């Protein structure tokens, strides 16, 4: 599996990561826990080393599943976890920072590890200055409980303020052929500061998958339907899938962008990881950007 480097601190991760979102739910249409654990093991066997989870997903269930599945491979993988300041009763500076420390300890226990490789704050707490959060993370890094840190769904101003106190390794946010907002100000700021970007929902919440009968693209959404028809034709002409086009397009944007799609099926896992080896030409990129 190809690797990429996030941030100036040199965090090396798989070119395409795996989001462990809603993986702990049982019953259709979700895998049972044993099946999902086997899928995670298969991902490691195939060379995947970057796994993204959160205390928010399924009320801690996903962290527990990730901890159980990844424990045998702990020294071979990079675990990214998120602290969500909106969980629980949190108010004011001291309460917010104490809650962050409690959340970290809880995540460490559920993930069966003594450190988190990349720890995000998910969102920005309006009651706690981002500089105080960065200082607390700096202390956690000295304690060895956090190796790298990042911000999820944060604005450029907050990122710059945080980075000035404790260097940020990566920012996580939504970016895809379907959602292009980060191109206006976020990506230029990250390039300037040497911060990596982790793309959530890189297949556009599934809209960019090969699903011609997707009911979400209703008859009233003719422009979206037409764009998807063009994307499918583009992919078919190159004997790849629309999902692989979407992931390869992201990888072509910057060498420090890493998409983290999620899946519960091995065939999709193989499809997504193979996208790291799809090569899009300059002409391909021009055509895609004009198309979407």
Query: What would the principal axes of the Cα set say about the shape?
Result: globular
| Radius of gyration based on Cα positions | 19 Å
Number of strands: 10
Report the structural category.
alpha/beta
The end-to-end distance, rounded to whole angstroms, is 28 Å
Number of DSSP helical runs: 10
Instruction: Round the mean pLDDT to the nearest integer and report it.
Output: 89
Order of helices and strands: EEEHEHEHEHEHEHEHHEHH
Low-confidence stretches: 26-30
Helix amount: 40-55%
| Biggest beta sheet attributes | 8 strands, parallel
Strand line-up across the major sheet: 3-4-5-6-7-8-9-10
Task: Describe this structure as you would to a colleague.
- The structure is a single chain.
- The protein has 292 residues and is an alpha/beta fold.
- Helices cover 41% and strands 16% of the residues.
- It is built from ten helices and ten strands.
- It has helices at residues 33-45, 61-70, 92-110, 130-142, 156-165, 186-193, 222-237, 242-253, 266-274, 282-291, and strands spanning 3-6, 11-14, 18-19, 50-52, 78-84, 116-122, 146-152, 170-174, 196-200, 257-259.
- Strands 3-4-5-6-7-8-9-10 form an eight-stranded parallel β-sheet. It has a two-stranded antiparallel sheet with strand order 1-2.
- Strand 7, helix 5 (156-165) and strand 8 form a beta-alpha-beta unit.
- Helix 1 packs across helix 2 (61-70) and helix 4 (130-142) crosses helix 5 (156-165).
- The longest helix has 19 residues, at 92-110.
- The protein is globular, with a radius of gyration of 19 Å.
- The model is unreliable at 26-30 (pLDDT under 50).
